[in-house]
């Protein structure tokens, strides 16, 4: 007999509360990104004013700020797309939330697929089900 760790897939069963909470989390992240964008725009305005007096090095700094701004704009667009996707999730469907590990004892003759095929299903923050792949035949 041997003791090993195995991956356990964690899924969430979609409910109205799950969609509401996920959309709120995503919206909170969008707000944070928008604040960062405002800060970058403020820094760009200050750099533009300094560049009028001393242009040395200002162009490189402005280009870097523009890259940062574009990255945040891309992030915001992706987050807004995710918010739209959340609205299209069907109640009762399952979405993968991540993986964890568990410890299992293995002995000669065990069905490997059954040992490795374990999932935890969450519903509204609680464990609703623990599934184990059943051996075939």
UniProtKB/TrEMBL annotation:
The keyword Coiled coil applies. InterPro entries: YlqD. Residues 23-82 form a coiled coil. The keyword Coiled coil applies. It comes from Desulfotomaculum nigrificans (strain DSM 14880 / VKM B-2319 / CO-1-SRB). Keywords: Coiled coil. Pfam families: YlqD (PF11068). This is YlqD protein. It comes from the Bacteria.
């Amino acid at each position: 007999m041997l003791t090993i760790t195995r991956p356990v897939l964690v899924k969430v069963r979609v409910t109205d509360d799950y969609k509401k909470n996920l959309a709120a989390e995503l919206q909170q992240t969008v707000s944070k990104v928008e604040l960062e964008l405002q800060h970058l725009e403020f820094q760009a305005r200050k750099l533009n004013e300094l560049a009028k007096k001393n242009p040395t090095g200002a162009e490189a700094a402005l280009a870097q700020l523009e890259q940062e701004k574009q990255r945040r704009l891309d992030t915001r667009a992706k987050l807004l797309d995710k918010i739209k996707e959340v609205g299209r999730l069907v109640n009762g469907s399952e979405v993968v939330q991540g993986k964890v590990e568990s410890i299992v004892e293995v002995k000669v003759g065990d069905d490997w697929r059954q040992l490795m095929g374990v999932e935890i299903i969450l519903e509204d923050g609680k464990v609703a089900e623990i599934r184990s792949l059943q051996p075939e035949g």
